[in-house]
Amino acid sequence: MSLRVIIVTILMGASVALKVDQGAQLVSLPIVYFLIAFTYLMTILYGLMLKQIRALTVFTYCQVAVDLFLETSLVAVTGGLASPFTFLYLISIISASMILYRQGGMAAASASSILYGIAGNLQYLQYGRLIQLGAEALEPRETVYSLLINLVAFFTVAMLSSNLAEKLKQARKSLQEKETGLTELKAFHENIVQSISSGLLTADLEGRVTSFNRAAQEITGLSWEEVRGEKCAEICGWRGLQELYEDRRKINLSNRHDVETQKKDGSRLLLGVTLSSLRNEQGSVTGVVGTFQDLTKIRELEEEMKKRERLAMIGEMAAGMAHEIRNPLAALSGSMQVLRNELTLDEENQHLMEIALKETDRLNNIITEFLYYARPSPLNYKSCDLHRLLDETIHLLQNSNNYHKGVEIRTDFGKESVMAKVDPDQMKQVFWNLSINAVQAMPGGGRLTITTRVREGGSHSMAYRLQDVRWLGGNDTARHTEIVFEDNGEGIRRENLHRIFDPFFTTKSHGSGLGLAIVHRIIEDHGGRVWAESQTGKGARFTIQLPPDQVEGK
User: Fold this and answer.
1) 419: buried, middle or exposed (CB in 10 Å: 19+, 13-18, 0-12)?
2) Tell me: domain 299-374, CATH 1.10.287, correct?
3) Packing angle of the helix pair 88-121, 140-195 (nearest 10 deg)
4) What is the pLDDT of residue 466?
């Protein structure tokens, strides 16, 4: 439609304006004006109808037919066989071939031949009488020659343009298929990269990040927007990565090593990293590709298994130690008490006797705790109100020798009771040990806050977590209870945080190192979790999480 307007405007408008005689005098300018106006009018109608028409092929045939009619009219009034506008048939034929392909091109060529012949025959009536249409009469030979030349031209152009259109159609279809295949292959590869559980990072020869898959974002806590175009050595800080760019020869070599780093939130992150060269189709090195896996949980489980093995060995020694140490110690303590009552001692010896009795009591308590840890009693599950157990523990703590008035105890229990199936005696032992630890961590005074809450789903924001394997395979999105002991005391050093639940590990001068180990063992026996978060000088927070099947009530 646009081409039609351009041709009419340039050719016919110029012919009218300049009144050029190209072998045939324009007989009637009003007829030409009519053809120009009619072409513009039809083009406007075509444009308005285009959005409404659904049968576009029929619509195209109609436009070609109207164009051929207008071209025949123009040829007829401008000289017939000698008209300078005969070439307009070729434009219509080419247009039909490009849009309607071979069938449309041949149809347009046939129609053009018939209409052109009619326009030529109008110059002569039967018996050779000339119709005066402003054209000179042609000799019979000239008439036949002109008809044949134009008919050959019409069908030749139709064949060539339709062949070209068919090839263009096939090329377009082939290109589209290849583009579709390439798009699908690219999407397939992208889905593979994004779906693998291992982190994937690629960087160019300048060390700038060019890709960072979904697993890499989840493992490191960094988003694609944060790392795109940044120096990978500065973002990751992996051992061996910087060396690759300092010595380009190492890029050709693959290497694997374990890296200990941190997530974006500062939590501990252990990675197994493999670095290798990234090559193009020609085999040239274009950068570095790194794959990595989060080994943090695996390492924690390995540490947990090693600790279980050590504890099993300790448990085997516990029975023998109980008989070999506890019985003589009880006899020794009893004998010393008799001697203290029977003998008359001066002040200094009396003081030494008190120290000896106090240390035997302390040694007896250590052995008792050790036996309690190494040979725990079976769990006696009962439906208990955790708030009541905590209140009883707080009351005992405030009336014990370990408590001092500089410590403030706050509770945040909520309005509703929290019921759970637990062993009440052992759970009170857990609460007692955590409370005593908090009070001892605040020798100059402070605040202990005890909070209970029921949550939906698991918690994953801890700095260090000891996990029970039996629960890891369960439903981590179900309701569970959390009890939090938080103080603002001295805190725990970061290098000690992962050892606080180990037996006999303590930083206190008079501690046995079994209090938190007993806490962990009891919670583990209940199928729960316990973890600690702390910063030196800012206090510590211990969180107990009971499994979903032990939570009752609302």
Assistant:
1) middle
2) yes
3) 150
4) 38
Angle between helix 515-525 and 347-374 (nearest 10):
20
What average pLDDT score do residues 72-84 get?
Answer: 75
Work out the number of other CB atoms within 10 angstroms of the CB of residue 226: 14
25, 32 Cβ separation under 8 angstroms: no
Residue-wise pLDDT for 94-147, tens only, equals 888 888 888 888 988 898 888 888 877 766 543 344 444 444 555 667 777 778
- Tally of CB atoms within 10 A around 301: 13
Strands (E), 349-493: 382-385, 407-412, 419-422, 446-456, 464-466, 479-487
What is the token pair recorded at 413? 């229990």
Q: Which CATH number fits domain 382-552: 3.30.565.10, 3.40.50.720, 3.30.980.40, 3.90.1150.10?
A: 3.30.565.10
Comparing C-alpha atoms, which of 260, 265, 300 is closest to residue 465?
A: 300
Dump pLDDT digits (tens) for 334-362: 787 787 777 777 778 877 888 887 778 77
Q: What is the per-residue pLDDT for 469?
A: 32
CA distance 128 to 144: 14
240-250 confidence digits (pLDDT tens) = 666 666 666 66
Structure tokens that stand for 135 in this block: 């054209």
Task: State the pLDDT at residue 313.
Answer: 75
Contact 266, 462 (CB under 8 A): no
Domain with CATH 3.30.565.10 in the chain: 382-552
In the sheet that 479-487 helps form, which strands lie side by side, from edge to edge? 407-412, 446-456, 479-487, 540-546, 529-534, 464-466
- Highest mean pLDDT among 74-78, 81-85, 195-199, 343-347 belongs to 195-199
Contact 539, 488 (CB under 8 A): yes
CA gap 223, 34 in Å, rounded: 68
Q: What does CATH list as the number for 197-294?
A: 3.30.450.20
Nearest alpha carbon to residue 204 among 99, 310, 282, 280: 280
